[in-house]
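Propose amino acids for all 396 sites.
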């Protein structure tokens, strides 16, 4: 693969709003771990007893977008629009409200696993408990899964292709491939790639009913066999992706480079099985990414993994990594801010950028990182036999 430059990053997470707050939060957690799951959340305690989730508590869209035009947006849409704005500004593509590049040459590829469940739940409740005539026509578009990404383009007047990827936990990493494809076909000069997931009562209730949440009295230990479930978080973010020569020509600051990508899929043994995880799929995805990057496994410094606390899935992910290199150091960022589904790969990539900047790698579930971090492997394992891998390189 010819390297693609990462020239900007904008994100919202339980650690804060914007990359600087995110990096500072990671550094603070590495020196003194903090529980982000026990505070109050936007979930209604009258409907959900004692929820444990990591919320973007300091997020207020009005601080970044102003007071007007937000009334009919749901939480996911606000998260993504703010992230889009922050990314454009960080990449030097927008200054003082003015684009420094033609809007026709900036595209968006955004991932989400569950979309705007807040809006979907509202629409269902109004329809079932009242009458379809009472649906708010201004909010109904939010129920479409690609609406949030569309609003990013509308708000920022971005006119190159707008794509939404919906394939679960691998979405943010697969969005990078989609963005690269558009760039290689000259459909844009810059692509915002990433994704988002918003906390909602429907999402929390669904995973509680599946009995995979580590709540009060259950052990939360991502990457460990004794873990009794995951905890949910929320977040969103984009990376600004460009061809390296284009980025250099416009004088952009290159934060890091994408040098390898791979994905794979294994079908379940039975068609009746809906949820399925495959260590072999991840192993093949990693090897594909290494070939793409022209690297050996020994050149990877650390893995930003997707292990989340569901012991069976974590075991398969760690086995897939070990099949490529047994002593590879593996970090578990989701132990800090929870499972963010479609946004997970994006937030893990942001962790890689922070490690490049000197933030200590934490928490490690196996191995030790010796010396500066130069190559990071980001992994994601889906619930349906899919797996993806991305390799990031520190900019020289």
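Proposal:
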């Amino acid at each position: 693969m010819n390297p693609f430059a990462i020239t900007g990053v904008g994100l919202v997470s339980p650690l804060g709003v914007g990359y600087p707050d995110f990096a500072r939060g990671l550094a603070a957690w590495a020196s003194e771990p903090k529980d982000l799951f026990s505070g109050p959340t936007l979930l209604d305690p009258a409907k959900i007893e004692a929820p444990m989730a990591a919320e973007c508590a300091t997020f207020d869209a009005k601080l970044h977008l102003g007071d007007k035009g937000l009334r009919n947006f749901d939480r996911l849409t606000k998260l993504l629009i703010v992230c889009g704005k922050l990314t454009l500004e960080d990449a030097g593509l927008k200054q003082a409200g003015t684009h420094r590049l033609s809007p026709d040459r900036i595209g968006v590829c955004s991932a989400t696993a569950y979309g705007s469940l807040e809006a979907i739940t509202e629409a269902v409740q109004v329809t079932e408990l009242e009458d379809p005539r009472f649906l708010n026509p201004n909010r109904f578009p939010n129920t479409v899964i690609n609406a949030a990404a569309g609003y990013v383009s509308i708000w920022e007047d971005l006119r190159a292709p707008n794509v939404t990827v919906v394939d679960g936990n691998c979405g943010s990493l697969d969005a990078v491939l989609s963005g690269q494809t558009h760039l290689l076909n000259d459909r844009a000069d810059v692509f915002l790639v990433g994704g988002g997931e918003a906390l909602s009562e429907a999402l929390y209730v669904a995973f509680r009913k599946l009995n995979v949440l580590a709540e009060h009295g259950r052990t939360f230990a991502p990457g460990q066999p004794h873990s009794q479930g995951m905890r949910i978080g929320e977040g969103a973010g984009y990376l600004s992706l460009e061809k390296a020569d284009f980025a250099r020509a416009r004088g952009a600051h290159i934060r890091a480079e994408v040098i390898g990508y791979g994905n794979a899929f294994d079908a379940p043994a039975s068609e009746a099985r809906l949820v399925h995880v495959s260590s072999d799929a991840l192993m093949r995805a990693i090897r594909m990414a290494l070939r793409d990057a022209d690297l050996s496994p020994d050149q990877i410094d650390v893995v930003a993994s997707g292990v989340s606390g569901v012991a069976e899935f974590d075991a398969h992910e760690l086995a897939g990594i070990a099949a490529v290199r047994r002593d590879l150091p593996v970090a578990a960022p989701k132990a800090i801010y929870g499972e963010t589904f479609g946004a997970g790969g994006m937030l893990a990539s942001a962790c890689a950028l922070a490690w490049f900047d000197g933030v200590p790698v934490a928490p490690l579930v196996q191995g030790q990182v010796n010396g500066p971090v130069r190559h990071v492997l980001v992994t994601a394992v889906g619930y349906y036999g899919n797996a993806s891998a991305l390799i990031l390189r520190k900019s020289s």
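The chain has a mean pLDDT of 96. Residues 257-394 form a domain with the Peroxisomal Thiolase; Chain A, domain 1 fold (CATH 3.40.47.10).
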